[in-house]
Design a protein that fits this description.
binds cytidine-5'-monophosphate-5-N-acetylneuraminic acid; eight-stranded mixed beta sheet; N-acylneuraminate cytidylyltransferase; HAD_sf; EC 2.7.7.43; transferase; alpha/beta; about 30% helix; elongated; N-acylneuraminate cytidylyltransferase activity; five-stranded parallel beta sheet
């Protein structure tokens, strides 16, 4: 009989230092994210943007920052997914079509991966469909395998749900309680609940997978915090998952700071980039009222908003928009100007948010504590940011980014309140 032991994300387990753990261990533990191109419900689900980040990006970020893996892989049959995986620092296993079908199981794809990778002793199969994973979870699970000697560990979540048997015509005409006594219904606080596999990850030693199992041998579960337990299964889950990751997801090693300054590129962010020119050479720009509202909301919450452009935009036209923002035009080097503003306001980069869409924005996007690009921004800008808006430039991207900033600021403030 396989032994099952518990671990919990809320238990106080000694967490090893991030850097160097993977190198120090002789066991080759590989993270493996399965991301086939043909998903049934949501097209290309595995790279669809969830809160501005491609779905696989959320778990790849956690896997990389955990520092416990000797190698991090995405197994895919799709060029676009390969590109995104590499952008997030993963290696790519191009899998065969046999293990990419609707009927192929995760185990099929994992077995194929191992056939090509003799060096791997343990596979940590992390499912992209559970994007609220944190590095601390992976660090604890790696310890359970490496130090506590488990052959397999998988994630579970505790639920307080009463189960009832199914009524089947001609077989069973009535229902029966499965895990409760209706005469003595326990209150939530009087009942430990039950553990459910939540599909976030499955770690298993090669020797076990060779026998055709992901769960077996000396086996343990890892209990995840309920708020981190998100399983995207159907389309309807997507907006819910989006709210969850914004609140509880992992945003990288750097602690977030309150935003004090938002710098926004004019052409292609505040505006669509279209300019109407009259016979006498006058420019007419248009902007989205939603974006003006976004700017005013930010200002109301004490965020200074400034506009920047490489082009010699008409200051008269910009001031006619009545946005109440300081503006700098004909800028040769945007980074120099933002540095100047940052110093003038006595801010660190983490307190600066930046919305840009072009090559000239890349340095600022990389340095800012929070950055975003409109959906129709150039690929270099998209690569440099951690939030790709759903809205296009001049079509609500500022308003959308403002909401994102507010949510993250809520996260900063609630973290500050913890004892
Ligand atoms: C390890 C395992 O058995 N995983 C299965 C899980 C697991 O049982 C549940 O999540 C538990 O809550 O269920 C399935 O989960 P699902 O189909 O959503 O797959 C989870 C993630 O893995 C990718 N995948 C899966 C199989 C495969 N051959 N190639 C892949 O790339 C998907 O693209 C997706 O990102 C299911 O719902 O049918 C199928 C999965 O195979």
């Amino acid at each position: 009989m396989a032994a099952a032991v518990r671990a919990s994300s809320s238990s106080t387990v000694a967490v090893p230092q991030h850097s160097g753990d993977a190198e120090r261990s002789s066991t080759h533990m590989a993270a493996l994210i399965l991301a086939r191109g043909g998903s049934k419900g949501i097209p290309l689900k595995n790279i669809k943007l969830l809160a501005g980040v491609p779905l696989i990006g959320w778990v790849l970020r956690a896997a990389l920052d955990s520092g416990v893996f000797q190698s991090i892989w995405v197994s895919t049959d799709h060029d676009e997914i390969e590109k995104v995986a590499k952008q997030f620092g993963a290696q790519v296993h191009r899998r065969s079509s046999e293990v990419s079908k609707d009927s192929s199981t995760s185990l099929d794809a994992i077995v194929e991966f191992l056939q090509y990778h003799d060096e791997v002793d343990v596979v940590g199969n992390i499912q992209a469909t559970s994007p609220c994973l944190h590095p601390t979870d992976l660090i604890r699970v790696a310890k359970m395998i490496r130090e506590d000697g488990f052959d397999s560990v998988f994630s579970v979540v505790r639920r307080h749900q009463f189960r009832w048997s199914e009524i089947k015509k001609g077989v069973c005409d009535v229902t029966k309680p499965q895990n409760l006594n209706p005469a003595k219904r326990p209150r939530r606080q009087d009942w430990d609940g039950e553990l459910y596999e939540n599909g976030s990850f499955y770690f298993a030693k090669r020797s076990l997978i060779d026998k055709g199992y992901l769960q077996g041998g000396k086996m343990a579960y890892y209990e995840m915090r309920a708020e981190h337990s998100v399983d995207i299964d159907v389309d309807i889950d997507w907006p819910i998952a989006e709210q969850r990751v914004l609140r509880f997801g992992y945003f990288g090693k750097e602690a977030l700071k309150e935003v004090k300054l938002l710098v926004c590129t004019i052409d292609g962010c505040l505006t669509t980039g279209h300019i109407y020119v009259s016979e006498d050479g006058k420019e007419v720009l248009s902007y989205d009222v939603r974006d003006a509202v976004g700017i005013h909301l930010l200002q109301k919450r004490g965020v200074e908003v400034r506009l920047i452009s490489e082009r010699d935009c008409s200051l008269k036209t910009l001031s006619a928009m009545k946005l109440g923002c300081a503006v700098e035009v004909s800028v040769a080097n945007k980074l120099h100007i933002v540095e100047k503003w940052r110093k003038e306001l006595n801010l660190c980069w983490k307190e600066v948010a930046y919305l840009g869409n072009e090559e000239s924005d890349v340095e600022c996007l990389k340095k800012a504590g929070m950055s975003a690009v409109p959906a129709d921004s150039c690929p270099a800008a998209q690569k440099a940011t951690n939030y790709i808006c759903k809205c296009n430039g001049g079509r609500g991207a500022i308003r959308e980014f403002a909401e994102h900033i507010f949510l993250l600021m809520e996260k900063v403030n609630s973290a500050g309140k913890k004892p």
